[in-house]
């Protein structure tokens, strides 16, 4: 397979195609079921979580300043993203479209006047009656 330029822009469809071919060449499509891919995502999120487990907030913030630690985080983030992209492909979800749709929903759920400066869930906001 062709090695991709690491400085290129994120192209989800290109990554989906690359991952699809990667799996096909290895005869891994049989293992890339929705259930297995969700479990793989969870496993990779666990590995990412493990890098921050037991760190204080200050220590966690300092991870981005140490190249070797940041590279470990980047590797796990990439694993999570790759499995999520693969899962979306297998499920027939247009990931970019789904992300934008969800972001627009969040704008509605979290209006600036109600959400600014707090971490409440949208269901806790007292909305004005129209």
Commentary on this structure:
By secondary structure, this protein is an all-alpha fold. It is 64% helix and 0% strand. The chain has helices spanning 12-25, 34-52, 57-62, 67-91, 95-109, 112-115. The longest helix is centred in the middle third of the chain and has 25 residues, at 67-91. The model has no long low-confidence stretch (mean pLDDT 93).
Topology, pairings included?
Blueprint: H1 12-25, H2 34-52, H3 57-62, H4 67-91, H5 95-109, H6 112-115
Helix pairs in contact: 1-4, 2-4
Number of strands: 0
Largest sheet: none
Q: Over the alpha carbons, how many angstroms does the gyration radius reach?
A: 19 Å
Beta-strand percent range: under 5%
Task: Tally the helices.
Answer: 6
Mean pLDDT: 93
* Shape annotation: globular
N-to-C SSE string, H for helix and E for strand: HHHHHH
Assembly type of the chains comes to single chain
Ends distance: 58 Å
Binned, the helix content reads 55-70%
Structural class: mainly alpha
Low-confidence stretches: none
């Amino acid at each position: 397979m062709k090695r991709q330029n690491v400085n290129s822009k994120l192209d989800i469809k290109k990554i989906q195609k690359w991952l699809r071919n990667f799996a096909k060449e290895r005869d891994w499509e049989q293992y890339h079921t929705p259930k297995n891919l969700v479990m793989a995502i969870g496993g990779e999120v666990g590995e990412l979580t493990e890098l921050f487990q037991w760190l204080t907030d200050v220590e966690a913030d300092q991870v981005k300043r140490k190249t070797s630690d940041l590279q470990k985080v980047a590797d796990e983030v990439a694993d999570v993203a790759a499995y999520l992209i693969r899962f979306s492909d297998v499920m027939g979800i247009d990931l970019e479209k789904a992300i934008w749709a969800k972001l627009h929903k969040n704008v509605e759920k979290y209006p600036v006047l109600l959400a600014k400066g707090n971490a409440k869930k949208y269901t806790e906001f007292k909305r004005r009656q129209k």
